[in-house]
Amino acid sequence: MGERFYVSAPPHIKSKYDARYIMHQVIIALIPPTIAGIVFFGGRAVLVLLISVLSSIFWERIILRIKGEKRPLDGSEIVTGLLLGLNLSPLAPWWIPVIGTFVAIVLAKELFGGLGFNIFNPALIARAFLLVSWPMEMTTWMSPFNGITQATPLTLLKLQHSYTPYINLFLGNRGGCIGETSVLALLIGAGYLFYRGVIDWKIPIPYVLTVGVLALIFKQDPLFHIMAGGLILGAFFMATDYTTTPITKLGRIIFGVSCGVITILIRLFGGYPEGVSFSILFMNAMTPLLDRWTIPKPFGYRTLGRNV
Amino acid sequence: MKRLLRPLINGILKENPILILMIGLCPALAVSSAAMNGIYMGLAATFVLVGSNLIISLIRKIVPDQIRIPIFITVIATFVTIVDMVMHAYAPDMYKILGIFIPLIVVNCIILGRAEAFAYHNGVIESIGDGIGMGLGFTFILVVLGGIRELLGNGTLFGLQVMPPSYKPVLLMILPPGAFLTIGFLQAIQRYRGGKS
Amino acid sequence: MLSHFLLLFIGALLVNNILLIRFIALCSFFGVSNSMSTSIGMGMAVTFVMVLASSVSWILWHFVLVPLHLEFLQISAFILTIAALVQFVELFLKKNSPSLYRAMGIYLPLITTNCAILAVAFINVSSNFSFIESIVYSIGVSGGYTLAIVMFAGIRERMASAPIPKVFQGYPIAFITASLMSLAFLGFKGLFGL
């Protein structure tokens, strides 16, 4: 019988939209938020981003060497490094991005089999890991332009019940992670990704809308909640990662809506001021189930028994 | 003496309950946030293990096969109750830390597992040896786990400051994810060294 | 009143998830979760037995052990109750619903050593829950167990075809996965003040 079937993992049809192309487009899309972050937070932001990207490349090289693989740089480590850096405070000490990229590249990605096989979003795993391990260093924020410490709009809301003006939220004149503060810059980047067909609307749009609607229901300002915190960054750049999110259309919409629900729950009722990272990570874990349960039935197909 | 030693060493190395057999996990993860906890938990479990192995081995010839499981459970539960009361009286702080995991020793897979797999079919001396061995293997891993997590997550070892003051402890290590992570890596190391120690 | 029970439920389901945060019932978690059908089966079996065992042990404690000042028999009494219950359920199912028996068959004896069931029995007593509270709590805990184990099974099935480094294949990567899942669940900390 020597016939063996070779089961490989998707994608099975390759096109121009291969990993390298997508990575390059994402890097380009991240340029506006990066510039905004540097404009508002100056040299410190440059430092954090630089360390993050460089150590990301470093860890990737090392782990590939250990594994014995010879893969050329495909940009994914730059994306991870950049995304993680944008998720950090400009005041983060140098070792934070170094450890963070180790966690992202080695723990969350390579141990699971490398690009395309990870279950969880590496940058978010790193961010959650860092936040839980070093809460002080991860929640010391900087006021734009002048370097003094300042709380984020969400923290200000949770602890002092004070609202930040819309224009600040939109342009980026507020405390927070390097990449999350300027909604304008992020939307430009996201727009570019839509234009290039790199991301699908079915996750970010339901995500953002759910947050807005739930905020309304709970008598909060929907526009504030959409623009504050890491929602725009998370919804358009992290929750759209193909590897860690559902394949099916219905699955994606459910993913987006569920993230919205969890984000609002944590923001309004939970112990942390921000819920974006955790909600996406939780839904990453649900993704295999979502894919399983939302497989579209071919027309006319009837199940004979209960297959789960 | 050899009848005692062989199963003893087996329990620590070749068939280490946590790393190899994958039983007795719950307390291993839950109490291993500090090395000292590991010692107390390990000793409590060892006491129960030795006691139950001893008794079960003694009565193995007269226990009817059909009701052996409830008999085992009763014997184990008795020893667990003793440990519970003794610890409550003489080590109340540790008793509070270990909390629900002391009474949970009664469903610790290791103890019931060894009763069924070993004590029921072997002599008294061997069973005592097996009990001590498995117990020590269990304790050993708990202390290693606890030590790693305490060192990285708190900068201390057995309560003594070991890391320099500039060390910023990795809080995650003393939280649940840290426990899973540590065991995962310990097992990977075990595997790297060739599966069985 | 309803919100009190809801909070109890959510606390048990998510915030203090029995598997990923409280580390209870791990043997079954790693042992059974390599396939979706066994995980769902185990989840259902655990739910069924846990709710039943919680009720019976609660009644036993409040109406027999305490009035007769036999509190020191708690450990023995509870575990024997659970073992007896499982045995009884097995026999009952075998006779009255053979298909269900076959479906749940293998898991039933395994459940006797399921730490979670015994743990919940203890917690019901130590937290001084009323009868209704202990039912709600046990539904929450078994729900959390089922959620975590089914989630884990889904992930493990997906990882089955991944090129995981040899040293980590099998249990090591399973533990790392559990670690990351646990990290995700940490986000619920402090939810509703729990």
Description:
The complex is a heterotrimer of chains A (308), B (197) and C (194). Chain A contains 14 helices and no strands. Chain A is mainly α. Chain A has one domain (19-293): Orthogonal Bundle (Ammonium transporter fold). The two termini of chain A are 31 Å apart. In chain B, helix 4 (35-59) packs antiparallel against helix 8 (124-154), helix 5 (68-90) packs across helix 7 and helix 7 packs antiparallel against helix 8 (124-154). Chain B has one domain (2-147). With 194 residues, chain C is an all-alpha fold. Chain C has one domain. Chain C has 9 helices and no strands. The interface between B and C is large, with 40 and 43 residues.
Structure at a glance:
The complex is a heterotrimer of chains A (308), B (197) and C (194). With 308 residues, chain A is mainly α.
**Arithmetic mean of pLDDT of chain C:** 86
Largest interface: B-C, 40 and 43 residues
What is the helix content of chain C?
over 70%
Low-confidence stretches of chain C: none
> How many domains comprise the coordinates of chain C?
1
Give the H and E element order of chain C.
Answer: HHHHHHHHH
Q: If you average the pLDDT of chain B, what whole number results?
A: 82
Number of strands of chain B: 2
Based on secondary structure, the structural category of chain C is mainly alpha
Indicate the low-confidence ranges of chain B by residue numbers: none
Estimate what percentage of residues of chain C fall within beta strands: under 5%
Find the count of extended strands of chain C (DSSP E, 2+ residues). 0
Q: Tally the helices of chain C.
A: 9
Could you state the oligomeric state of the chains shown? Answer: heterotrimer
> How do the strands of the widest beta sheet of chain B line up side by side?
1-2
The percent range for helix content of chain B is 55-70%
Helix-strand pattern of chain B: HHHHHHHHEEH
Large-scale geometry of chain B: globular
Head-to-tail CA distance between termini of chain C:
16 Å
